[in-house]
């Protein structure tokens, strides 16, 4: 990658599992900036790799107050994705560092994936596939399987992705209900009939999660919430692993208190191969890739880089989660 040029904005990727960085490199070159990719996760590694950075792009690395204190020239942090729970946003704001994300890049991809997980679990597709390959006819093992029409699809979190998931579920024939902290129960919110959280848990035969991870949503789906769900319910999570208490989910599945789960995001990533969920036939797991399509991949990379380049150029980026920093800077 490009070496540091005197006077140029310098952007460093702390770590990222992408296979190429041509989009970021092109954006940096167009802005006269330099760009380098590191692969560091620990605080000491991040500080060492980014000491000369004006901006950093992060995927999983934890950017804490201590890390920020050790990077005094830093002006912007770009998060590859929607959530910014890996960044101490309050600490960044206090130090005048803009935190940027790309909140709408994966709307189509993630909503597609939520529907795919739903149907895979509901129709027992992976189990039937494994049985066929092993020469088994699996009907008794997968019963009961229900048609979509007449089933209730619940959406927890009616932002861009949740609303698009609701639209696609309705198109398949589900009756769709939703809950959002901004929606009044009984009203129609973004085209979805809003209900209380209790009603959502108690009625949903599919419960699809689309909320950010913060103090209010951490383990929002815990043992108590799972105990309110129907025995024929499927839990689908494409939001953040920490929204679900995994130990409570494992217990609910083992005891047959819910019917199945489709999980793309996990409290511990990568998921250990001996994790209890990996042995459950009523569970479909994917490795935090709901966000991925070729279209969303390129968009994510371009916009993540452009956000921090704009901050460093004194421009307002398209997406910033702590805009007060920009107001002070201007």
UniProtKB/TrEMBL annotation:
Enzyme Commission number(s): 1.1.1.95
Keyword Ribonucleoprotein assigned: no
Keyword entries, A-Z: NAD, Oxidoreductase
Natural source organism: Cellulomonas hominis
Alphabetized PANTHER family for the sequence: D-ISOMER SPECIFIC 2-HYDROXYACID DEHYDROGENASE CATALYTIC DOMAIN-CONTAINING PROTEIN-RELATED (PTHR43761:SF1), D-ISOMER SPECIFIC 2-HYDROXYACID DEHYDROGENASE FAMILY PROTEIN (AFU_ORTHOLOGUE AFUA_1G13630) (PTHR43761)
Domain spans labelled D-isomer specific 2-hydroxyacid dehydrogenase NAD-binding: 115-290
Keyword NAD (UniProt): yes
GO molecular function: NAD binding; phosphoglycerate dehydrogenase activity; transcription corepressor activity
Source organism, top-level taxon: Bacteria
Pfam family, one: 2-Hacid_dh
InterPro entries: CtBP, D-iso_2-hydroxyacid_DH_PdxB, D-isomer_2_OHA_DH_cat_dom, D-isomer_DH_CS, D-isomer_DH_NAD-bd, NAD(P)-bd_dom_sf
Family: Belongs to the D-isomer specific 2-hydroxyacid dehydrogenase family.
Domain annotation D-isomer specific 2-hydroxyacid dehydrogenase catalytic: ranges: 27-322
Name the record gives this protein: Dehydrogenase
